[in-house]
Every structure is written in structure tokens, then in C-alpha cells.
């Protein structure tokens, strides 16, 4: 049985900053699924620069059924000042639409942007707090709609803040090493969802 794996969301879902296509989040997680014994068909509809308000368009672009979806969004909602309530509502609606087709959904909410280079040290606590507030709204909306929310933000934030090599040359997106770290953190939860999806289909 082929596991149909969908990746949607923003530039992190797309893989901006990775040195090669093999280093992107979708490609790395596809290999993790394959290593666990799944035959995988990857569909990528993520768009760099996307906010939560763009998710509905991405969902409409999906072709065919989906077993497991990875949805990464939030950073652009902050940088483009999308009202948190609107962002959370749009995320919840996208999750609901995906769940309605039978897909299991793993949501990766907004990262902690306080560790990126353009944030002055004096403002990092404020930025971290704003990220936390949006993440809390996203988590509530996504879980209410039936998604699993990846519980990885604090640990990943600490790792990225401590190691500049995890950022790409633009000092905003992850490097290949950064994507490897994110994929490693997400893989256990994604594998559980994939296994449950396969069991349900069987």
C-alpha cells in the first residue's frame, strides 16, 4: 500500500534554504517513512511566503487522496502581521478540510523567531512572547479541528539559538543541517500517524 504524504504551508515546508532538494523537510521525512517500511508518494503544495490565509488555496490544489499531511505555517503570519485570530481560524479551517478527506494532519506551528539574526537582543524576549501567543492560538485551533500539533518548538528554538550553522545564508531559513534537525524532531510523531493510517486502511 502506498502512503500518500502531503506537505503544505510556507517556505519551511517548501524547503527554502536547503542546499539540495534532498535536504528539504519533505524529502527527509519521506526517507524516514520509507525507512520504516512505507512506500511513499510525496505531494508538495507549499509556497514560500505563504501565510495561514493562503492555506485554503493550497488545499484546493491537492490532487488525489491524502493519508498523512504535514502542515508548517506561522512565521509569515507574524512578519506580515496577520491578526492572530484570523491566522488561527484559517489554520483550523485547512485542518478541518484535510481531516474531512480522511487525512491525518501533523501541524508544525510558528517557530520562535527571537533567535534569527535580524532581531536585536533587546527585543528577543518580546518577539518570543509574540510567537508564543500565536503558537497557543494555532495549537488550540489545530487540535480542535483534529490535528496533532508537533511538541517541538522550545527544544528546536534552543538548538537554533545556540548554533548559527543551523541557519542558511539568509539567517532566517534553516540550512540543510537545520532541516535535518527539524526532520529528526518531527519523524517520531509523523511515523506514529503513518502507522495508524496504514492500520486503519488495512
UniProtKB/TrEMBL annotation:
It comes from the Bacteria. The keyword Ribosomal protein does not apply. Keywords: Hydrolase. The keyword Membrane does not apply. InterPro entries: Ester_Hydrolysis_Enzymes, SGNH_hydro, SGNH_hydro_sf. One of its GO terms (molecular function) is phosphatidylcholine lysophospholipase activity. Residues 7-181 form the SGNH hydrolase-type esterase domain. This is Lysophospholipase L1-like esterase. It comes from Modestobacter marinus.
Amino acid at each position: 500500500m502506498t502512503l500518500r504524504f502531503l506537505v503544505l504551508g510556507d517556505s519551511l515546508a517548501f524547503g527554502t534554504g536547503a542546499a539540495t532538494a534532498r535536504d528539504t523537510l519533505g524529502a527527509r521525512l519521506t526517507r524516514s517513512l520509507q525507512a520504516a517500511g512505507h512506500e511513499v508518494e510525496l505531494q508538495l503544495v507549499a509556497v514560500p511566503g505563504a501565510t495561514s490565509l493562503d492555506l485554503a488555496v493550497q488545499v484546493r490544489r491537492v490532487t488525489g487522496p491524502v493519508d498523512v499531511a504535514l502542515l508548517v505555517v506561522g512565521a509569515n503570519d507574524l512578519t506580515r502581521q496577520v491578526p492572530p485570530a484570523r491566522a488561527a481560524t484559517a489554520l483550523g479551517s485547512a485542518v478541518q478540510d484535510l481531516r474531512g478527506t480522511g487525512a491525518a494532519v501533523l501541524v508544525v506551528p510558528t517557530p520562535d523567531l527571537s533567535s534569527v539574526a535580524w532581531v536585536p537582543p533587546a527585543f528577543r524576549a518580546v518577539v518570543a512572547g509574540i510567537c508564543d501567543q500565536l503558537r497557543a492560538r494555532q495549537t488550540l485551533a489545530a487540535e480542535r479541528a483534529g490535528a496533532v500539533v508537533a511538541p517541538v518548538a522550545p527544544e528546536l528554538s534552543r538548538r537554533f539559538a545556540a548554533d548559527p550553522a543551523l541557519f542558511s545564508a539568509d539567517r532566517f531559513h534553516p540550512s540543510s543541517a537545520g532541516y535535518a534537525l527539524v526532520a529528526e524532531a518531527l519523524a517520531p510523531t509523523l511515523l506514529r500517524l503513518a502507522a495508524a493510517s496504514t492500520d486503519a486502511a488495512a
